[in-house]
Amino acid sequence: MALSTHTTTSGFLLPSIHSAPPFFTQQPHPTSLSIATDQWIQIILKYARHRRLFTIRVQDAETPGNVWDEILRNERINRKLLPSYLSYIFTQMVSRKVAAYDPPKQDRSILIYWRLPEEWAEVLYEWVSSTANMNTIMTFYEITDPPIESPLSALPIPLLRQAIAILAKSNRAQIIAIAEGEGVRFFPTTIKA
Amino acid sequence: MGGNQSMPKVTAQDRAILDLKLQRDKVKQYQKNLQAILDREEAIAKQHLSAGHKDRALVALRRRKYQQGLLLKTDGQLENLQQLVSTIEFSLVEVSVLHGLKQGNEVLKEIHKEMNVESVERLLEETAEAREYQREIDEMLANNLSLDEEDAVQAELRELQAAVLGEQPSDDVRLPSAPTSEPVAQPEEEEKEVVTDTARTAVPA
């Protein structure tokens, strides 16, 4: 049987292994399981990057009609990823630090780090610098929902907080909190001779 | 790099600005909501029309009109908020500029205290006096020398002059004389030779 790649309607190229029925079953043999899980994690990360999705839930495997359908289901071979396997994949992703349980202390939904928080911190700092918002007080809403599309649009707030915390460690950001809500101010780095 | 030196403290003005910006965000979100409601009301009106309920469509359109008015009003409020935020930020900049000017002024005053006009004048006078004095001393020393050994020095100078001038040809330096006739053009044969010579030289590839 010839396996082939397939391009989805959203323009995402699925690897040929995605056309193999056994790929959707949690393999008993540890080696094949680890290989298959690696492939699944790669696919999930790439798709999240492609469609700018930040969260995935076990529920997405249980019920169709959500954004992850193109990945979790393959109608052509009549297979879908079972929720139990997806849950196992989540644990693997979290242990490899490419995802985190969000909200914490549960295991049904994760926040995907298709870009690590450190990288997000740099992207955030660059964007603030290029939009001339240094030394001005900004609200979280301003950052995640700017009037002009930015690489940070629709960034989930927990990820934004992590990025700000990383910048605060290097003295490039400062969180300001008042009763109504929170804001953040970014500082240019002064090169000390 | 030590501690929190690079991050200024959060002042009450910062908090006020943040408050205003949060309000502005709320207004923006409210506007988004309104816009969504407007679109939905329009869809409902169309539905009713296609089903033939003209009166219900009218009601939906009236609701929509009212909400459009609300949207315009919130636009105005948003503008007010934005203006207030910009004014506050600008006045903060002005305050820091004023502060900078004041500090610069202070520094200048301090420098002027050390360097007032009278002391500068006095210094210049003293320098001039000292220079005069030095010149007198030089003259005296020069005088001493000439009284004792002026004749011997003059004799030495004459001898040196004679030695130097004796090597040169006597009298003036001879310059070449200017030509008295027009220059004659070279004969053409020579020119042709030159031309053919250049024609024959091959240029290496």
Q: What do these coordinates show?
A:
The complex is a heterodimer of chains A (193) and B (205). The longest helix of chain A has 22 residues, at 30-51. Chain A has 2 domains: 6-112, "Winged helix" DNA-binding domain. Chain C. Domain 1 (Arc Repressor Mutant, subunit A), CATH 1.10.10.570; 117-186, Arc Repressor Mutant, subunit A (Orthogonal Bundle), CATH 1.10.10.10. Chain A has 193 residues and is of the alpha+beta class. In chain A, helix 5 (117-130) crosses helix 7 (157-169). The N and C termini of chain A lie far apart (65 Å). Chain A has a 3-stranded antiparallel β-sheet. A 3-stranded antiparallel β-sheet of chain A has the order 8-10-9. Helix content of chain A is 39%, strand content 16%. Chain B has 205 residues and is an all-alpha fold. Chain B has 2 domains: 10-109, Helix Hairpins (Orthogonal Bundle), CATH 1.10.287; 117-165. Chain B has helices at residues 12-51, 54-114, 117-167, 188-200. The mean pLDDT of chain B is 81. Classes of the chains: A alpha+beta (193), B mainly alpha (205). The A-B interface holds A 136-139, 141-142, 171, 174, 176, 178, 180-181, 183, 185, 187, 190, 192 and B 1, 4, 6-7, 10, 14-15, 17-19, 21-23, 25, 28-29, 89.
